[in-house]
Amino acid sequence: xxxxxxxxxHYATQAAVDLRGRHYWIARELVKLGYxxxxxxxxxxxxxxxxxxxxxxxxxxxTLPCGAKCVYIRSNAYHNNGKQRVLNMFRFAFNxxxxxxxxxxxxxxPDVIYGSSAHPLTVIVGEKLAKKWGVPSLCEVRDLWxxxxxxxxxxxxxxxxxxxxxxxERKMYERANAIIMTWEGGKDYIVEQGWTDTIPLSKVYHIGxxxxxxxxxxxxxxxxxxxxxxxxxxxxxxxYTGSVRLVNNLGMLVDAAVExxxxxxxxxxxxxxxxxxxxxxxxxRVRELGLDNIVFKGFTARHNIPSILSQSDCTLLHNSxxxxxxxxxxxxxxxxxxxxxxxxxxxxxxxxxxxxxxxCGVELDEQTPEKIADALEAFSVMPKEQYDEMSKKxxxxxxxxxxxxxxxxxAEIIESL
Length: 417
Fold this sequence. Notes:
Elements: E1 4-8, H1 13-18, H2 22-32, E2 36-42, E3 44-45, E4 50-51, E5 59-63, E6 69-73, H3 83-107, E7 112-117, H4 121-133, E8 137-141, H5 147-152, H6 162-175, E9 178-181, H7 186-193, E10 204-206, H8 213-222, H9 228-231, E11 236-241, H10 251-262, E12 268-273, H11 279-289, E13 294-298, H12 305-310, E14 314-317, H13 332-339, E15 344-346, H14 354-358, E16 361-363, H15 369-380, H16 384-399, H17 403-416
Parallel strand pairs: 1-2, 1-7, 2-6, 7-8, 8-9, 9-10, 11-12, 11-14, 12-13, 14-15, 15-16
Antiparallel strand pairs: 3-4, 5-6
Helix pairs in contact: 2-17, 3-4, 10-15, 13-16
């Protein structure tokens, strides 16, 4: 058994602090399987914009309640997506390489390095160290970088640095002993890029995002959430939980609410839980339009989400759709929606669709306010047998995406290297 598994993830800080999230859950399950995982992450937390340790040493370690170790590595603060954030990435990568060598001298080298990319620098450091020490490296891709940048900002594909970034991405995949993608269509991406001559598809694996069912059910039983709109069953309540930012395109849901009002439908209502820089502008727009069939509830604590979702009549998976959706879906909230056991309305289409394949919801081929209104009206009058069957299937499918299963698959990949 390759026991010492080093997990490199710049942004695992929140998972380590909150004791939840992909790499915390994976580390916890690896401990149960007999491994010794160590998470290496930044000492500056992305979402709270705070340092974990105000003394800000080069690095410090902690033992997490699950038994895994966590090493926090110094970098600089930032408050937007500008130059300071880019500097944070490079400083973290530079210090990661330095600290990893120190840590190896103190505790011994790892048996495998598992680098996870929101940006590739972390993975590249892991691959270089793995080669130096003669151990396998795993490259996990949670964001098709830089393709995701090009998808939202097509003009950047013409920039002088675009080709350099793509070449760096390809080199990162070539050096890895195994590639883990969170989209089921990850192999399709490699094929379409024309890289199969140097990147064999046999080393590309799929381990999607998922849900920790143990945590979900614990929150559900311990934290009942009270809300008068949610408990009002004279309405059909479609619930969205998540960020309220420009990229989430929630203005389209406001447009769908206008469409429903224009049709004279007063039964269907959308309830939106989440925070972000679009929250107040959207609330103001709702007030100006005089809408009462969409309510922006604002931020709520994470432990309330299972209760909110479980009291909904259906859940809303909505986002700005891009060409990358053809490779599949990996949104964390989608798997929480499944665990809630309610039918899911996806307002856009994806490749390898779980909703279509497993019949746990409805996926729209065209993302427009009119189509969203049509689907919500259809949900609100759906025959009980059909509704109950979708709910049942959602619960069944959630079992397939529990992090216990994901970690067992990861362990099989590690042992195969």
